[in-house]
Amino acid sequence: MFLLNGESRHLVDVSDRGFQYGDGLFETLEVLQGTALFLDRHLQRLTEGCQRLLLPPPDWQLLQQEAQQLTANTEHGVLKIIMTRGSGGRGYRQPEPIVPTRLLSLHPYPQYPTSLQSHGIVTRFCDQLLSINPSLAGIKHLNRLEQVLARAEWRDDAIQEGLMLDNNGHVIEGTMSNLFIVKNAVLYTPALTQSGIAGIVRQLVLAFANQLALPISIQNLSKDQLLQADEVFVTNSVIGIWPVKQIAQHSFQVGEWTQRLQVMLNQARLIEVENHD
Amino acid sequence: MFLLNGESRHLVDVSDRGFQYGDGLFETLEVLQGTALFLDRHLQRLTEGCQRLLLPPPDWQLLQQEAQQLTANTEHGVLKIIMTRGSGGRGYRQPEPIVPTRLLSLHPYPQYPTSLQSHGIVTRFCDQLLSINPSLAGIKHLNRLEQVLARAEWRDDAIQEGLMLDNNGHVIEGTMSNLFIVKNAVLYTPALTQSGIAGIVRQLVLAFANQLALPISIQNLSKDQLLQADEVFVTNSVIGIWPVKQIAQHSFQVGEWTQRLQVMLNQARLIEVENHD
């Protein structure tokens, strides 16, 4: 199901700058019992992305209405929101005024085995590097060739995620997820000011860690630090929190902090559903 | 005028990975007297881009036919070719098999004053940096947010181009053009193995320089080297060769080497038209 600028259409003009240049942003949300989870946090990130890309701010009320319209009867699914700079302009020069294109689309929830949540996933290191660009770091923009090329490096379905490093050799994130480690009862995650996407579940995990009085360190992570971690997990809005049980040849236990954070995330998801009714 | 997968349409499915991720490539060609200039060179670059992005190679014969169909009656215009990975796949994971989307579109030739060719253009330095990524450098892919943000830095129509540096402070190219300098009768241009797009007119200029026995050095260029140049010019397939008469506060003369290369490019354009008939 699609809502393109409010209409039930799924064809966009080829002159749209999303198609021409990847000139836009997106959000991916879990839909549970008719609720698009953490919608306000996603709209906040979208708003910040618009500021960074010099796009007009999104109309929250309109997007909330359209999300509601699309997801009201969905038990479990995925909502994707795309905003682009629309059509027009001369080459790279942006049009004046900018009339953004907005697309909401509803998709089936992927059928992941529940064991991934409980027993963890297998990961690998990708050869494809993340380039460093502070002006684009953190936001969920539509220029995603690095992730596409990284994901194309393996076809083995036993491997659920690939971990990506930046040009400086820092471990940044997964192809579709943020990365956390716990070491000596401290939670570490990369800063994402130079590259990477700052996820909504990442925000939530950092808030939960505060509630648990688990100290947080947002800093560069090396491969060695990662491989010597007590616990490793990855997060995104669709998978939630997946423990990592294997990185290349290194094995990890599913840790207690990881499990506590999973419980808190599940509670927060249910509260979202309750508050929405 | 548009040809989308061979049909006269201009609407593409929103699930196309060009729209979702900027997952594709493009080419921009000048059309003169019914001829898409240097089409084979553009198809060669497109083919190389497909290899780099793990896309099936383009069908040259089909693209030649479609280009001919679209441009046959055009005195002067611009042809754009876009190839994307098509629809499908799961998230960033590419579909199997890949069924590419191809779009050919015909546009009016921009009305640039002829004085830009003869007397040169005014340029500025952009704050927006080009990120370093060897796996994407050189090819004309659809992830163009850096260029969009760079071009958004100025609105003064007296400035025709912005020059972009990479993270290491090297001058790489213009927002829409390649950059050359001449110093002490040597032609310099950046390597484009770490960032930037290797243009077709850039290829031609290097070939002309060989014919003129003008020594070539493909190397990193600093801002200082640029500002101390004897001649500066920028190139792309639509503008051809534009001398640079000003960079920020520094002035330059239109040089003799630049003029000789312009003459050679114009000859090559006319030969393209003749050979096409």
Top keywords for this entry?
homodimer; about 280 residues; alpha+beta; nine-stranded mixed sheet; five-stranded antiparallel sheet; 15 strands; globular
The assembly state of the depicted protein chains is homodimer
Structural class of chain A: alpha+beta
Question: Which stretches of chain A are low in confidence, meaning pLDDT under 50 for 5 or more residues running?
Answer: none
Count of β-strands of chain A: 15
- In one word, what is the shape of chain A? globular
In angstroms, what is the radius of gyration of chain A?
19 Å
Average pLDDT rating of chain A: 97
Kindly report the greatest chain-chain contact and the residue count on each side: A-B, 52 and 52 residues
Report the portion of residues of chain A in β strands.
25-35%
User: Strand-and-helix sequence of chain A, N→C?
Assistant: EEHEEHHEEHEHEEEEHEHEEEH
Distance between the termini of chain A: 22 Å
Fraction in helix of chain A? 25-40%
Largest sheet: number of strands, sense, barrel closure of chain A:
9 strands, mixed
